């Protein structure tokens, strides 16, 4: 995939010079001409744009404003940085950030590696790839709440399947969700199981795009499986790996469902309180929308950095 | 492709950030005018200013009001009664149109309620919990109805427990009328009590007795727990508060600025729970429970006791398929104070005086007249609805006697099972200021005790004290 095959050459561009604005060929300019030419497409876009404007962009603007406002006696007043002060003074603030970063780290170690290894393994199969893809993707189709309930049964300290298995092996029972030291790990396992299907399919698609000659050449050079993965697979999928890495960070830093449903939100001694759970608390338990928006804004700023990196990577992929 | 991906990313990283913002956006879209009630006659009367608040609604007045919490179709019997009550009410006030607003789930779901208040889209007569008053007033959502409520408009006013009415007042102004109240007690499973050789008619009265009974019940084995407690979703802190109240303690001092639970009484609560959980192993292994979890356990004969309000029994019978006969209640162990709360209706700020009068007339008929509306026990019995639960019980004097007699005559459950609770009323005490924030902090104390065998009670309480002081300082 070389650049010249995708990009029109200078000669080609000179053979098809762009019409100058205002010339008889382009009355009203390029924009107007494009608009006319793609009128149907633009008409279809209107619905999406309106939806995004109403339900994505407008709330973002409102959130920004809310972070500096407070509602008192039905009137909205500007309070400057008061909401941020409230958030910073919350005893749970740093714990929530620490827990969120811990979840993200564990999710990167476990949730990032498992789908990639699965994809490589499935890709090695000559037959039944479609069947395996379906099997891996099935958990994604399970509603998140159903998945969480399933893990609730697995993790139950009294009758859970995991402790039953440990009992059979004569190993000590574990308090999977009730031990502050391992609760977050248990959440990551549940989350990984529920979400790995999508990532695995993306990795599989990337793996199938790697030319077979590269592997053949590596084998001729005497490379074993691990060296082939290291020298062929990973470099060839580097970009998609980087993108998924960033997506994983963005997604896992917004973790909410798993701690909310599996450990009641805070978990043992607050060990599973995440930033988004704290936002939920402010908004729906304390009715403090200003503080919720302020904390949301802080998270937004952090994630915006990752989003920018993601966008840059996307551009380099498209180039 | 690139822009679409970028847009998706931005959306992904924004939409889930603040659940509040979408709600607020929707709330903004759904804003309705509270001033414009669209009722010409009412507008006229407001403009004229001729309406005397203390005079009951003139039956000839034509007015239309929206009322919260009309039973949904799924609650057929309650809906039938609602319609009957509207028809009966219209015999006195033929020109008043009652427009019921139905809610599928609970009448008041905090997120929806908050959005409604922010958007000023609450019905003219809207449902609230006692603890909602500060939030409603901060949103300027409720009308001061002091001048409208008198023994002319609410004849049984003098017989309403002043503690109940007091919870609807601020700065001497009345902002609502009650429909029910509750105080917490000790809910027991009678079958397990009998199986464990305990007397279900004499539930434990002290925490020492609770501990001993819990041990016996847990001794039945097969996964049965003696006593259950919450420790998640703010409900752990809520119950820590109830337990502390029961010993005469308090969560916040009289100034409202300092935590007051890190003392001997707080430690007594914590140590008793710790002993039951770890020394006696009588509280089961599964913890981090929240509202609904203990109800399921006791309804399936897996739990002997927990702190609850009487209306939990209705939930367990109607939603979980349990039977009334299997439950009993005693007063909260310790018996010094118990956590109290309840439900009521408020009138939307800004509606016309005639609408306010019509709302109060309806509330008086439906919720505050002995023998009628919600207190028509013979009708409730005929409709297979529960009769005989000890609460709501906000009546005093003659109204109480009449109501108790009507309730006993139509009881659909063995009321003797609740005699211990009824015969030993414990003074009710309302929730502390910044209740939910404090409960969140105290959840950690409860979860620490119930999930960590080696939890340092002193440290848990001390940390919570610091955090609650911080919460109170941020008021």
From TrEMBL, chain A:
Q: Name one Pfam family in it.
A: BPD_transp_1
Identify the InterPro entries for this entry. Answer: ABC_transporter_permease (IPR051393), MetI-like (IPR000515), MetI-like_sf (IPR035906)
Q: Which domain of life is it from?
A: Bacteria
Q: Which organism is it from?
A: Streptomyces venezuelae
| Keywords carried by this UniProt record | Cell membrane, Membrane, Transmembrane, Transmembrane helix, Transport
Tell me the protein's name. Answer: ABC transporter permease
**Record-annotated membrane-spanning stretches:** 39-58, 101-122, 134-155, 182-206, 237-257, 289-311
Subcellular localization is given as: Cell membrane
Q: Report if keyword Transmembrane helix is assigned.
A: yes
UniProtKB/TrEMBL annotation, chain B:
InterPro entries listed in its UniProt record:
Bact_solute-bd_prot1, SBP
Keyword set for this entry?
A: Signal
Q: Which residues cross the membrane?
A: none
- Superkingdom of the source species: Bacteria
* Biased composition, class Low complexity, residue ranges: 40-50
Q: Where is this region: Disordered?
A: 31-57
SUPFAM superfamilies cross-referenced by the UniProt entry: Periplasmic binding protein-like II (SSF53850)
Signal sequence extent: 1-27
Q: Which Gene3D superfamilies match?
A: Periplasmic binding protein-like II
**One Pfam family in the UniProt entry:** SBP_bac_1
**Keyword Iron part of the UniProt annotation:** no
UniProt xrefs under PANTHER family? ARABINOSE-BINDING PROTEIN-RELATED, SUGAR-BINDING LIPOPROTEIN
Q: What is this protein called?
A: Sugar-binding protein
Species of the source:
Streptomyces venezuelae
């Amino acid at each position: 995939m070389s650049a010249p095959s995708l990009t029109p050459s200078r000669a080609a561009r000179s053979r098809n010079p762009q019409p100058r604005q205002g010339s008889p060929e382009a009355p009203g300019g390029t924009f107007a001409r494009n608009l006319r030419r793609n009128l149907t497409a633009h008409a279809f876009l209107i619905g999406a744009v309106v939806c995004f404007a109403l339900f994505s962009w407008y709330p973002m603007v409102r959130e920004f404003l809310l972070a500096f406002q407070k509602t008192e006696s039905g009137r909205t007043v500007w309070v400057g940085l008061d909401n941020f002060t409230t958030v910073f003074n919350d005893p749970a603030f740093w714990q929530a950030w620490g827990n969120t970063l811990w979840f993200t780290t564990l999710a990167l170690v476990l949730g990032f590696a498992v789908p990639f290894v699965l994809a490589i393994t499935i890709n090695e199969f000559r037959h039944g790839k479609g069947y395996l893809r379906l099997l891996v993707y099935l958990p994604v189709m399970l509603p998140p709440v159903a998945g969480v309930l399933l893990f609730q049964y697995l993790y139950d300290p009294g009758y859970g399947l995991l402790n039953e298995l440990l009992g059979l092996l004569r190993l000590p029972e574990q308090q999977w969700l009730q031990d502050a030291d391992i609760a977050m790990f248990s959440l990551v396992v549940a989350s990984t199981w529920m979400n790995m299907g999508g990532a695995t399919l993306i990795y599989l698609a990337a793996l199938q795009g790697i030319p077979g000659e590269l592997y053949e050449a590596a084998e001729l050079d005497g490379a074993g499986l691990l060296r082939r993965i290291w020298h062929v697979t990973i470099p060839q999928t580097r970009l998609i790996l980087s993108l998924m890495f960033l997506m994983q960070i963005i997604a896992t830093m917004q973790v909410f469902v798993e701690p909310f449903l599996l450990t009641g939100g805070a978990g043992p001694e607050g060990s599973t309180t995440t930033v988004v759970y704290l936002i939920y608390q402010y908004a729906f338990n304390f009715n403090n929308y200003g503080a919720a928006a302020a904390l949301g804004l802080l998270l937004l700023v952090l994630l915006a950095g990752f989003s920018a990196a993601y966008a840059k990577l996307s551009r380099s992929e498209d180039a | 492709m690139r822009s679409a991906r970028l847009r998706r990313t931005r959306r992904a990283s924004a939409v889930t950030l603040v659940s509040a913002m979408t709600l607020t956006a929707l709330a903004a879209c759904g804003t309705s005018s509270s001033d414009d009630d669209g009722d010409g006659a009412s507008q006229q009367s407001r403009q004229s200013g001729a309406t005397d608040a203390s005079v009951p609604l003139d039956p000839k007045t034509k007015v239309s009001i929206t009322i919260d919490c009309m039973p949904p179709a799924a609650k057929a019997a309650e809906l039938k009664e609602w319609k009957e009550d509207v028809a009966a009410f219209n015999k006195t006030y033929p020109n008043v149109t009652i427009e019921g607003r139905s809610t599928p789930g609970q009448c008041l779901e905090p997120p929806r309620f908050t959005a409604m208040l922010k958007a000023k889209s609450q019905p003219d007569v809207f449902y609230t919990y006692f603890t909602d008053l500060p939030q409603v007033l901060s949103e300027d959502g409720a009308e001061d109805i002091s001048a409208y409520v008198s023994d002319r408009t609410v004849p049984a006013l003098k017989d309403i427990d002043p503690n109940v009415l007091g919870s609807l007042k601020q700065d001497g102004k009345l902002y609502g009328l009650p429909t029910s109240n509750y105080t917490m007690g000790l809910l027991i499973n009678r079958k397990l009590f009998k199986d464990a050789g305990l007397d279900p008619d004499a539930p434990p009265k002290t925490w020492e007795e609770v501990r001993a009974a819990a041990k016996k019940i847990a001794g039945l084995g097969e996964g049965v727990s003696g006593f259950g407690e919450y420790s998640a979703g703010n409900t752990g802190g809520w119950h820590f508060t109830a337990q502390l109240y029961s010993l005469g303690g308090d969560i916040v001092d009289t100034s409202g600025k300092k935590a007051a639970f890190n003392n001997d009484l707080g430690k007594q609560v914590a140590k008793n729970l710790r002993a039951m959980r770890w020394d006696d192993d009588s509280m089961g292994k599964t913890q981090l429970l929240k509202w609904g979890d203990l109800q399921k356990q006791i309804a399936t004969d897996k739990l002997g006791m927990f702190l609850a309000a009487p209306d939990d029994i209705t939930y367990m019978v109607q939603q979980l398929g349990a039977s009334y006969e299997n439950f009993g209640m005693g007063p909260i162990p310790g018996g010094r104070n118990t956590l109290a709360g309840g439900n009521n209706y408020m009138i939307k700020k800004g509606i016309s005086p005639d609408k306010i009068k019509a709302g109060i007339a309806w509330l008086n008929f439906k919720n505050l007249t002995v023998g009628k509306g919600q207190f028509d026990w013979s009708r409730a019995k005929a409709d297979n609805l529960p009769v005989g639960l000890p609460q709501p019980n906000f009546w005093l004097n003659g109204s109480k006697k009449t109501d108790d007699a009507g309730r006993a005559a139509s009881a659909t459950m063995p009321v003797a099972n609740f005699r211990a609770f009824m015969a030993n009323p414990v003074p009710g005490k309302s929730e502390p200021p910044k209740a939910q924030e404090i409960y969140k902090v105290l959840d950690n104390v409860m979860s620490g005790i119930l999930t960590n065998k080696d939890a340092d009670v002193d440290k848990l309480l001390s940390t919570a004290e610091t955090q609650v002081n911080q919460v109170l300082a941020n008021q």
